[in-house]
C-alpha cells in the first residue's frame, strides 16, 4: 500500500512545488512592476492636497487601497473630497460558507465599513455616495453608470478625478474606468484624471490564458513592460498619513477576513495589501488639466 501511494505523493509534491514557484515568480513580477512605475513617476506631493477630488471606486475598499493616503492628505488640508462606490458589494464571498449574515446584511455591512474607512480618512458621511450597481456586473449597463458619473462630476466639480485602472483586469474595474472616461469626454470642466492601480498588482491581470505556465508568464511580463513604458505616472508621498490609511483599511473587515461573525470568510492576502500600505501612492496620469486626453 505504501509503495502504490508513493508515485501519487511524489506527483502531488511536485505539483505543489510548481505552483509555489509560479506564485512566487508572479508576485515578484508584480512588485517589480510597482517599483518600475514608482521609479518613473513625477513627484506631485507639493500641491495635491489643495486640489478637490472625486474618488470613484468599483468596490468598497478600493477607495482606501488605491488612494487612501491622498484622500487623507486632502482632507487634512480641508480640501473637498467626494467618494463614490459603484457596486453594492453583494458579490463578496459568493462561494464561501456563510454563518450569520444575510445578503442584505452584507450590503449594509459594506456601506458601514466604507463610511468608517472614509471617516478615518477625514471624509464626511454626506460626501460618501453609494451608486448601488450590481456587484460583478458593472459592465451590464455602462450607459447608466456613465450618467451617474456625469451627475457626480457636475455636482462636485472636482480638480482631480481618481478612478481605478482600466487595465486592472477585474471586469468591474475595467467597466468603471471606461464609464468614467466616457463621462469625462463630454465634461466641459477643467479636470485632471488619475487612475489608481489595484488589480494591476495581481498577475492574473496580465497572465495570458490558454498558454503554458512559461509562455503565459512571458507574455504577461511583456505586457507589463509595454504598460510601464506607455504610462505617464505621478507619485505622492503619503507616509505622514500612512497610519490613517492602515486604520481605514482595517475598517473593511469583511474584505480582510477579520469580520468575527463570519470566521470562514477569506481576506485579501498580505502579499497583495503590501502594495498599498507604502510610503508613496502612485497614479497614472491620463489627461492634462485642460481636459484634453493625452
Ligand atoms: Zn475592486
TrEMBL record:
Pfam families: PIG-L. One of its GO terms (molecular function) is hydrolase activity, acting on carbon-nitrogen (but not peptide) bonds, in linear amides. It comes from the Bacteria. SUPFAM superfamilies: LmbE-like. InterPro entries: GlcNAc_PI_deacetylase-related, LmbE-like_dom_sf. This is LmbE family N-acetylglucosaminyl deacetylase. The lineage of its organism: Bacteria, Pseudomonadati, Pseudomonadota, Alphaproteobacteria, Rhodobacterales.
Amino acid at each position: 500500500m505504501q509503495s502504490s501511494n508513493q508515485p501519487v505523493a511524489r506527483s502531488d509534491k511536485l505539483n505543489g512545488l510548481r505552483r509555489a514557484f509560479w506564485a512566487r515568480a508572479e508576485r515578484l513580477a508584480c512588485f517589480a512592476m510597482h517599483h518600475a512605475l514608482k521609479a518613473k513617476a513625477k513627484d506631485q506631493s507639493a500641491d495635491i492636497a489643495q486640489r478637490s477630488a472625486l474618488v470613484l471606486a468599483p468596490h468598497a475598499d478600493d477607495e482606501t487601497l488605491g488612494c487612501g493616503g491622498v484622500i487623507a492628505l486632502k482632507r487634512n488640508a480641508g480640501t473637498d473630497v467626494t467618494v463614490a462606490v459603484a457596486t453594492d458589494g453583494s458579490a463578496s464571498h459568493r462561494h464561501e460558507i456563510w454563518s450569520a449574515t444575510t445578503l442584505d446584511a452584507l450590503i449594509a455591512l459594506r456601506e458601514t465599513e466604507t463610511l468608517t474607512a472614509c471617516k478615518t480618512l477625514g471624509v464626511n458621511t454626506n460626501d460618501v455616495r453609494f451608486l448601488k450597481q450590481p456587484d460583478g456586473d458593472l459592465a451590464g449597463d455602462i450607459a447608466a453608470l456613465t450618467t451617474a458619473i456625469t451627475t457626480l462630476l457636475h455636482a462636485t466639480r472636482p480638480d482631480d478625478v481618481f478612478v481605478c485602472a482600466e487595465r486592472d483586469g477585474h471586469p468591474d474595474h475595467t467597466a468603471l474606468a471606461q464609464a468614467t472616461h466616457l463621462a469625462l469626454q463630454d465634461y466641459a470642466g477643467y479636470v485632471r484624471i488619475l487612475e489608481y492601480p489595484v488589480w494591476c498588482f495581481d498577475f492574473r491581470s496580465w497572465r495570458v490564458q490558454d498558454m503554458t505556465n512559461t509562455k503565459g508568464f512571458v507574455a504577461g511580463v511583456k505586457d507589463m513592460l509595454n504598460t510601464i513604458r506607455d504610462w505617464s505616472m505621478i507619485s505622492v508621498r503619503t507616509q505622514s498619513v500612512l497610519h490613517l490609511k492602515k486604520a481605514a483599511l482595517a475598517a473593511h473587515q469583511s474584505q480582510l477576513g477579520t469580520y468575527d461573525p463570519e470566521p470562514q470568510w477569506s481576506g485579501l492576502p498580505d502579499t497583495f495589501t503590501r502594495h498599498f500600505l507604502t510610503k508613496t501612492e502612485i497614479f497614472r496620469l491620463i489627461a492634462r488639466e485642460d481636459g484634453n486626453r493625452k
